[in-house]
């Protein structure tokens, strides 16, 4: 059985990490059997980040995208067989938009913005015992703020980041149109989109993007509800 190493559930979601939620959603879409191993230990992750997996042949892999490619090949998952070349290219661009930009916008608000940090701190470190709880949260925060700055997003104002994030949402909503899934039938990019978008729309933290999505992009909210109903409540 595939073992999926990821953070424990937090902030009202199966996973408050967009990448972990993406991979578990993809596993549910694929129908492959898996078991969760909840951990906070990044030191044991092959590339220092979560999620990572151990496949049923014992091979260890990191990075949600590489893991999905590996699992598709090794287990013959045909989720994306219906995509033509243009849709494959659009999938990749959507993935990059969500993972390399929306992700950092969300991270900025959660970790760097003083308005949201207390909730983030409680969600991720609330159950930590002394003496760790006295210094680990601030150390982790420092590291995350550094990453968000290095990515570039953390150098902008909150209003600029909100506007940039909403342009990404507009692009995703435009591709989605009135289809039930991004390319009509479900495909791997829906797992990625759900992982990232549920972390704005459903998470127990009202980031500035959330009311704007609810007001201006009801199709995105309905899409997230559909993904949740089909793959998490079925
Ligand atoms: N490209 C990786 C990104 C994984 C990633 O950024 N994971 C974050 C959680 S959302 C992480 O482990 N961060 C811990 C850290 O950077 O210290 C993937 O697709 O899996």
Plain-language structure description:
With 234 residues, this protein is an alpha+beta fold. The chain has two domains: 2-75, Glutaredoxin (3-Layer(aba) Sandwich); 85-231, Glutathione S-transferase Yfyf (Class Pi), Chain A, domain 2, CATH 1.20.1050. 59% of the residues lie in helices and 7% in strands. Strands 2-1-3-4 form a four-stranded mixed sheet, with helices on one face. Helix 1 (18-30) runs parallel beside helix 2 (64-75), helix 3 (85-112) packs antiparallel against helix 6 (158-176) and helix 7 crosses helix 9 (218-231). The longest helix is centred in the middle third of the chain and has 28 residues, at 85-112. It is globular. It starts with a strand and ends with a helix. The mean pLDDT is 97. Bound molecules: glutathione. Glutathione binds at residues 17-19, 42, 49-51, 63-65. Glutathione is lined by residues 17-19, 42, 49-51, 63-65.
At the fold tier of CATH, the topology name of the largest domain is Glutathione S-transferase Yfyf (Class Pi), Chain A, domain 2
Secondary-structure element order, N to C: EHEEEHHHHHHHH
**Into which percentage range does the β-strand content fall?**
5-15%
Which small molecules are bound? glutathione
Q: Report the uncertain regions.
A: none
Average of the residue pLDDT scores: 97
Write a short abstract of this structure.
It contains 9 helices and 4 strands, in the order E-H-E-E-E-H-H-H-H-H-H-H-H.
Quick tags:
234 residues; alpha+beta; Glutaredoxin; Glutathione S-transferase Yfyf (Class Pi), Chain A, domain 2; 2 domains; 4-stranded mixed sheet; globular; binds glutathione
């Amino acid at each position: 059985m595939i073992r999926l190493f990821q953070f424990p559930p937090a902030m009202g979601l199966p996973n408050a990490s967009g990448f972990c939620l993406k991979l578990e959603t993809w596993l549910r879409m694929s129908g492959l059997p898996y078991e969760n191993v909840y951990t906070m230990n990044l030191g044991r992750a092959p590339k220092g980040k979560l999620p990572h997996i151990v496949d049923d042949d014992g091979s260890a892999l990191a990075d949600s995208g590489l893991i999905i490619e590996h699992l598709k090949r090794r287990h013959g998952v045909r989720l994306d067989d219906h995509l033509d070349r243009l849709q494959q290219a659009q999938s990749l661009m959507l993935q990059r938009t969500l993972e390399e930009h929306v992700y950092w916008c969300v991270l900025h608000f959660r970790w760097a913005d003083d308005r949201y940090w207390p909730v983030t701190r409680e969600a991720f470190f609330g159950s930590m015992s002394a003496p760790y709880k006295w210094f680990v949260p601030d150390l982790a925060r420092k590291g995350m703020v550094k990453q968000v700055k290095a990515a570039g997003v953390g150098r902008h104002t909150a209003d600029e980041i909100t506007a940039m994030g909403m342009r990404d949402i507009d692009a995703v909503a435009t591709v989605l149109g009135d289809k039930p899934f991004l390319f009509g039938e479900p495909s791997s990019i829906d797992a990625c989109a759900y992982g990232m978008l549920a972390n704005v729309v459903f998470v127990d933290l009202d980031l500035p993007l959330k009311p704007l999505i609810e007001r201006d992009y009801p199709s995105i909210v309905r899409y997230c509800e559909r993904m949740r109903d089909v793959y998490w409540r079925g």
